[in-house]
From TrEMBL:
Cell compartment(s), UniProt: Membrane
Membrane topology: Multi-pass membrane protein
Keywords, in A-Z order: Membrane, Transmembrane, Transmembrane helix, Transport
Annotated organism of origin: Novosphingobium nitrogenifigens DSM 19370
Top-level taxon in the UniProt lineage: Bacteria
Protein name per the record: Putative transport protein
Amino acid sequence: MELHLHNPAPTPLAAPPMPSYIPPFGIRTVVGALGVLLAVHVAGFNEHITEIGLADISGQMHLGHDEGVWFLSTYEAFNIAAMAFTPWFYVTFSIYRFTLFITAALALLALPAPYMPDVVSLCVLRACQGLAAGCLPPILMTVMLKYLPPHLRVFGIGGYAMSATFGPNLGGPLEALLFGHLGWQWLYWETLPLCAIAIAMIAWGLPRDPSHWERFRQFNWRGFVLGVPSITAVVTVLYHGERLDWFSSPLIVHLSIFGGVLFVAFIAHEWFHHSPFFRVQFWGNRNIASSLMTLVGTLVICGLMMEVPMTFLEEVHGQRPEQIAPVALIVALPQLILLPVTAAFCNMRAVDCRWVLGCGMAFLATAAFLGTGINPEWMRQNFYLIQALQIFGQPMVVIPTLMLATMALGPADGPMISGMVNMLKGLANALAFAIFAVLLRTRENFHSVMLLDRVGHDVHVLPGLVGNPIAGGLATSGPDGGKQAQTALEVFHGYVHEQAITLTLADIYLLIAILCVGYIALNALLPARVYPPQPVPPPPPADLPAGEPSSDLVPQN
């Protein structure tokens, strides 16, 4: 008996389909996903440890201030550029092979770092390290959304959010531990043991998906040639602008024009290309547009709030990273509990993630408002309440923001949104660096001038305002009048600097509070509600009622 299907044209018998490279969800998939998560954290530690420990590295490798900024900017420029274009490459080479290769490269590139003979070779190596590190976060987002079952994908988003909340806050304590107990070389080599563990977990647990070499025939080379130099130029401007006095420097002017023109051309090219790296049309979706803007703002806010206590304790009290470490640990360690708890809460269908986001922003705004009361007498423990509010605020903002950006998209849109989200995440860190540098210089200059002007116009202010510090400084000096005058000026200069730094950081806290209130209003108006994905229903029974043939059947004799 033959069963004839009504097809418009006869179809030849197809070969048996290849088995799916997405196995049933189980312990191996969990181990593989956790291996990718560990690799991403290793990349983040490598970034933040070397940034926080730059003074120690510069002292050991004889780097000046300018060389130190190039040390940071070359890493970040290629790190962010890699985030933008990685999704195309891991789809082509396969997630499994690409992740193993990049994780191994990240570890091996750390070996020669302490022995680089000059600044140029060191910066080239840092560029390669940034390239490897930037490839991992987009892979993590795809792995969490692709290999986890629908009802667990919000927990995958929580795992990805750890790279924005847990990792950056743990960089300072790790730097203090490594430099103080193992040696400065381990500021680079911390990747070695952790990458080895991550490689073992990935090799055993991550599904072995196929490669698609045929994609090279349709490679978007114009977009690649336009995008990579434009992104690296923009990041370089953000890191070196303050050092070179922005547009007073020909280098900044040329890089700004070059990067800006290429980036506009890149966006225009991506709009019309049939296989873009970015789907620019996503910005027409209210949820995606608002969530991407919120993500950038949140990461800038978190970056600024992390820098303020570190700068205050270093500049005003002269503390080292090991003394500042508890301030960062207060935020970092509870994230291991708060992130999954927040993800579980947002995974409830009755919970509107927009309200969770608004409450998280309110926590951050409250923390920043409390910070406006900073004064020179504050010590480490005075920041504990501010940091405690961030424990709740950061996961309550980042997880709902990522939900709004990803929950309404289909599987085919994953690589398109992954590159965009991660590039903006990297640019937010560079933007926070530039904003903090500009605010620190401009507001400190302003407050220094105001304080000196006040002293100059009222001779009675000096004894009442700074008499005690100067008297304390003079008490340790000798009877020489010239030495006493010099000591008085030094003490007075230090006191004005201390007051100006404190007032500047209070201004930054106030700006953060205003930004948080603005983002609360933005997310109350723009995004529509999204729901967490539900478990996939079980497949229908194999036996079908008579007279209802399946469309999957093929002619049989």
